[in-house]
Amino acid sequence: MIDLLSRFDSIRAVDWQGDHLRLLDQRVLPFEERFVECRSPAAVASAITDLVVRGAPAIGIAAGWATLLLVREQRSCELATLEPGLAHLVAARPTAVNLAWAVDRMRRLLATPGCTEQAVFEEAQRIEQEDLQANQRMAMLGSELIAPGSGVLTHCNTGALATAGLGTALGVIRAAWAQQKLKGVFAGETRPWNQGARLTVWELFKDGIPATLIADSAASHLMSEERVQWVIVGADRICANGDTANKVGTRQLAIAARYHGVRFMVVAPSSTIDMAMPDGSGIEIELRDPGELTHSRGVRTVAEGVDAWNPVFDVTPAGLIDALVTELGVVIRPNTRRMRDLFAAS
Amino acid sequence: MIDLLSRFDSIRAVDWQGDHLRLLDQRVLPFEERFVECRSPAAVASAITDLVVRGAPAIGIAAGWATLLLVREQRSCELATLEPGLAHLVAARPTAVNLAWAVDRMRRLLATPGCTEQAVFEEAQRIEQEDLQANQRMAMLGSELIAPGSGVLTHCNTGALATAGLGTALGVIRAAWAQQKLKGVFAGETRPWNQGARLTVWELFKDGIPATLIADSAASHLMSEERVQWVIVGADRICANGDTANKVGTRQLAIAARYHGVRFMVVAPSSTIDMAMPDGSGIEIELRDPGELTHSRGVRTVAEGVDAWNPVFDVTPAGLIDALVTELGVVIRPNTRRMRDLFAAS
Questions:
Q1: Residues whose CB is less than 8 angstroms from the CB of residue B250 and which lie 6 or more positions away in sequence, other chains included
Q2: Tens digit of each residue's pLDDT (9 = 90 or more) over A207-218
Q3: B56 and B198 in contact (C-beta within 8 Å)?
Q4: Strands B237-239 and B273-274
Q5: How high is the ipTM of this complex?
Q6: CB contact under 8 A, B309 and A211
Q7: From CA A279, how far away is CA A295, in angstroms rounded?
Q8: Partner residue facing B220 (CB), from A205, A296, A314
Q9: Which residues pair with B311 in a beta bridge?
C-alpha cells in the first residue's frame, strides 16, 4: 500500500496547539496563509459559521477540540453544565452532519461517570486520528474503482483543507494520481464561494497534481467530449437510503454524469451517514447570505436592488450514485438495504 | 396585442449615429453606461471580439453597420474590393452564426449590379428593424406556451443588450411578465463572464421585473423545489436537426430540466438556424482566454501556475428541447423534418 499520508502531508487545516486551536483561514487562501487562533468554544463556533474552517470532516474535528476548550472554560466535565455550549456549537452550521456527530460523541463521553478533561482531550485526538486513517482507507478503496487512463472531475473542496489530512474525494484522486491512473483532473469553480477555484486547484498544485479549473457550467461540455470518466465528490450528510447532501451543484453534476454515461462516486466517512434520516426530503438546506452572489471581495458586482437566492447545498438522489466509498467499505448503487448491510458487515 | 416595443425600450446596445456606430460597452455594465464609438469596420470587429457588443443578434446587426462603414472606408461597393474586410469581420467570433449570416446577406446585396452605398445603408437598417419585429413576434409566440403562475429560469443575456431591442428569451419573459403570467424569474450568473449577474438582472430590474440571481450550479436545486416550470434561453447557432449551440451551461440546464420535468424553450430568430449544418457535432466551440476563470477585474483569484479550460459555448441536443420559438413560428420538439417544415410553411 502506498503511504499516502507521508506523501501528501503539506496542509494542516485544523491544528491543536496544546492550549488553543489553530485554524488555517480558508477565506483568504490561496494568496495568504493566515491562521486564526481560537481560545474559546465560541471562537470555534464563529470560525465554523464564518467559513474559516469548512468541510464536513474538518468541522467535526474542530468541534471535538472546541469541546475540550469548553470543558476548560467551564472547569467542568458535567454534561448538563456544558450542554448550552455544545448546543451553540451544533448550531454553527445546519447541514453538515459531522458537526452534530462529533458533538454527540462528546456528549456520550461526558455522560459516562468519572469523565475527565484528559478523556475529552483523548477523544478529540481520536476523532482527528480516525479521520486521517479513514481517509487513507477510502483513498485506496476509491482508487480501486478507477481504470487507468481515466479523467476525473471534482466539485468543491474535499481535500486536506476539509479533513484531518489527505481528504475524502481528493484523497481518492491523490491515490489514483500516485498510482498513475489519471490522465486528467478537473475541478469546478464551485460558485459562489469558489472552493474549487481557490482551494482545490491550489491544494492539488502544491502536491504536483496539475488540475484544470473549469466553470461549473462547463461540466456537461467536458463530459460530452469524453474527457472524464468519473465525477468524484464528498458529502455533508448521507441518508439511510443513500441520498446525499453536498455542495450546491453536486445534484446537477450527478444528473449530467448519468446522462453522459460518466460514473459518479461519493467519498465520505461513515460519520457522515445519518441512518436516522430515511431520505433526502428531510434534509434542511442551508441558505447563506445573498451577498455571496452579489458581491466579490466586498465590492458589489450586481446592480443595486437585485435580489439573489443562495442555497449552498443540494441533495443528490441515491439512484444517481454509482459508488459510495466509506472507510467501512464501498456501497455500489446505494439503497437502504445496501446501506444497512454496510453497517452490519462492519 | 401588447405593444412590447414601447413598453420596454430603455436600452439600445447597437445604435447607428449617421456616421459611426455607437455601442453600449457591455464590459463595464451594470455600473457604468459607457459607449464605444466605432468609426471603422476594424473597430467594430475588435468590439465584437472584445465583447463590447455581444449576443448573436446584436453582433449580426453590428456587422450590418460595419459593412456600411467598410463601403465608406473603401469608397467602393464592389464585393471583390470589400471581401478582405468582410472576411475579417466574420472572423471576429467563430460560434455565432448571425455574424456570418449578416455578412452573407451583405455579400449578396453587394453582388447585385449597381449596388449603392444607400442600398447598403438600407440593408443594415432592415437587419436591425427585422430583428426588432422578430423579437416582438417571438415574445408573443413564446409567452403563449407559458401557463399563468409559472416560474422561469434563464441563462446568459438574451435581452435588449443582445438584440435590436426587447430580446429573444428575455423578450418572451418580458411578454409573459406583461401578461402577468410569471410568479418568479430566476437568472443564472453565467460564469465566467457573468452575463446573467451583470446584464440580465440589471436589464430586467430597469424594466421593473424583479429577477432573482442564482449560482449556475443552483439550477437543479431550484428545479427540485418546483420553483420553475420553464427554462428559457437564446441560441448562437441552431442546426438542421434542432441541436442548439448556446452559452456554456445551457446543455447542463437542458439535461437538468428534462430530469425534473421542467420544460425547455429556445428562442431565436430564424437567422440563427443553419440548415447547412446537419447536427451539433460539426459546431466549432469557441475557447476563450483561461484568464476569464483565473482573474476577476484584472486581479488573479486562482493560485499561480494553475491552468483553466474555458469553452464558452456548448451544444444542447434537440431531443432535450421542448419548444423552439422563431419569428416564423414555433417548432415543438424539433427534429430535421419539423425544422424543414418551419421554412416550408413560411
A1: B155, B156, B233, B244, B314, B316
A2: 999 999 999 999
A3: no
A4: parallel
A5: 0.92
A6: no
A7: 34
A8: A314
A9: B287
